Amino acid sequence: MAECALCFNVYSRLAPHLTAVHKVANSDEKRLLLALAAGRVDTRKTPCPVPGCRRTPARLDRHLRQHAELSTSGRKEAMGRAKRRKVARELQWLRSTQPAIPVVSQLASSSEGERDSEDPEAGRPCADRGCRRATERIQAQLTDLGKQVTKMRSTLLQITRLYRELRKGEGGRRRRKRARRTRSPPAPPAPGRGAAGGPTPPEPPEALEPYPFPDHVPALNLLLGEFEGYQLGSEPTPRLRNNVTSKLGRIKAFLGYMARGTAEPGDFLFLNQPARIRAWAARLGQTRMAEPTRQHYLKNVAQFLDYLSETPPAACQLSSTALVLIRREVRALIRGIRRRVVVHEVRTKQAKETQLIPKASLVRCHRTAGRKIPALLDSLESNPSTRQQWRFYGFLTGYLTSISGHRCGVFQNLTIQEVEEASRSPDESAYVINITTHKTNRAFGAAQLSLNREEYSWFRRFLALRAGLPGGSQATYFFFTSRASPCRTLNKYFQSAWLSMGLPGKPTFTDVRTAIATHRRLLS
Question: Quick one: which of 418, 495, 492 has its CA closest to 449?
């Protein structure tokens, strides 16, 4: 017995019914209708039929189990709708091919929730500007609501999983408690003494779990999106994108802490709690977070509050007086931590100076690397390999940083175009490479590498043979990888070259930079 998908009646012999009653003569059409009646429809990569869910999972049956709001019959009904829509789309495609035997069933145009795609006016946008704006606004709200549903569903699954684990843990504790009752309890240790007679070890501090950011609130999402665009600007660099992402993470941590237990965080009134702001700053101090990092948190929050105060959204119910109070509280916290930041910086600088790289080691690194680089280039020309390429990277960056003290990011962001467009003297005996992308380019402009004729010839030789290395033909950075991306492990290759030269320690580019700056300061 099977139900006909066209007339919804039950028949023991459905195939003759489709032929005799509905005049279905196309074999492909009949196959699809029989498969729908038998429930044998492939639902992989099928959109979820649950309203508000816009996911297209690989396994729809497993995905529907994650909808905790659906009962067993509800999941079965949703699966039936998905199968019917899948067959409807396939019938619609079959009709569009205009087969020799026409498709007569109207399942594609009558399935519930599906828009008739044969209507030429269905997908045409309205000419009225106000109507288009309203449509775009509603579509944005639907997208945001879909994200909220996905987030709440994943949170519900996580809470359910934790609840089950908690129930299992409670059962295990009950069994262990009953087992202890059957045995005689051991003698309690002396006060202040552990089981072995020694002092009782202190209990580790409780881990500070981060409070989740309320990303189900459209007003907060919209404001953070606008703030992100304001921070990125019109031409963001990859480094700026990373910095803005980190900044948004710190701001979300603050908002999550402030909004906990709030029923309506969309009005922003949860920010008007100076005591909780101070508690959040004190909570940062309870972690192993260094003082400069805590200062970064406070400064990023202050930037966000300034943006909120200057351009408050329509949903914000904070008065101008409350905004002044909140910003003043955060600025006071920044002033309070500034002294500890200075003490931390002095302590860190003193620790670095105790492990200062001697000038003799820097000179030896410069001379040894200068003798080794031509031999490595010869080896790359005769037998190109990534191993020799990494060794060349280590010795070349060691040679350059031992006299310039540049950060690792300067070498990572060095492009082939900047090498080819290097400034040169009239007799071509001196060259200057300008690296525009680095950490302090806003304050000091481009970083520079001053080279003589022989040193610049190393760069040109490597560019001439880079096509024979993996990723070299598509690379835009001078220090590239097999994927034509900038090399992020230059520090590792520099340390390997340093050790192969027989020099003590395992310094980083920052250690070399600190040593050069300290030696220069002591000479002046």
Answer: 418
